Amino acid sequence: MSGYSLFLAFILLLIAILPLGLAVKSSSLLFRRLGLILTYTAFILQLCYYLLRWFAVKHAPVSNMYEFMTFFGIMLTASFLIIYYLYRQIVVGLFVIPVVLIILGYGSVFTNEVTPLVPSLQSNWLTIHVMTVAFSSAILSISFATGIIYLLTKLDVYKKSFSTVALEVVMYCLIVVIGFSGISAAFNIMTEDIDIQYKNAHGVNEKTVYTMIPLIVNKGAVTESGDTIGLMQITPTIDAKQFNSIVWSFIAGTILYAAIRLLFRKPIIVILQPLTKRVQATLMDEISYRAVVIGFPLFALGGLLFAMIWAQIAWGRYWGWDPKEVWALITFLFYAAFLHLRLAKGWEGEKTAWLAIIGFAIIVFNQVFVNLVIAGLHSYA
Asked: pTM score > 0.85 for this model?
């Protein structure tokens, strides 16, 4: 039932993009109301998924990548609804909902199987820590969407410049994430799993299963029959299986991006720019700032304070310079610098927009790349 609820929510959000798009182009309230009804209904179904899964697994469903990314998507939907209640800007939903869909699609690639929690995860502080991080990251992600909207209103997207090229690169990166979801589903349907053996960073023999064709493997990796495999071998300190998935993501994303460019004969930012013609740029800048003002202290609580309490309970120390801990600190320091530059140096408008986009990139890198590729105490996710 939880799975069906989440899938139906995904479909409703996908459908909601159409009336939301029409709402920003039309003065009629019909499309706005329809888009909001679909979004609210999807959010209720997302909550049903979460509560039903919690009831089924007997603990808060935030202990692996599937559960975290789906909860992140739920919180991002909630964040949009909160921002809409405060500012009545439907265009924010038009740019946030696709990001929610990308996050949910990305999360669906990972296994949704229920497994017993390892000892370090059997703590209520884990629930408090992860849920606070997800909610704060979602609120901070609103500034990413409003930052893009601001740039689309201010930049001359038909003129090639550093800013327009950089913004198009951001669009390309989002397409890459879509490519990851698509290529993962394709390999699951069309190919068989490949069992590989290798020695991990501690010199211990380890086995892993590749669902995608192995292009990248760890040093000394062989198949069960003893045959060498892969086009490139890398150090065992990096998870070659996940790095292999990232390589395939860029391959698929690049093909998808090229197909979009060939179909429309124009950059993605040129396609999106007409949707922002009726937007007040100064209001988008204000929303970006307010989202960081709300999200930053919440992230400080969840990403640092609550995380250190959990670390003390789980591993007997508050801080250990684990890669995940380091990048949580980097995220905190970046948004602290964001607020300092905004308040003390008067950075507004385009500067704020780019800072919001960079901040979102740091969040994604921390929540995805660090968890999956860099070996550390958080690699279980």
From this structure: yes
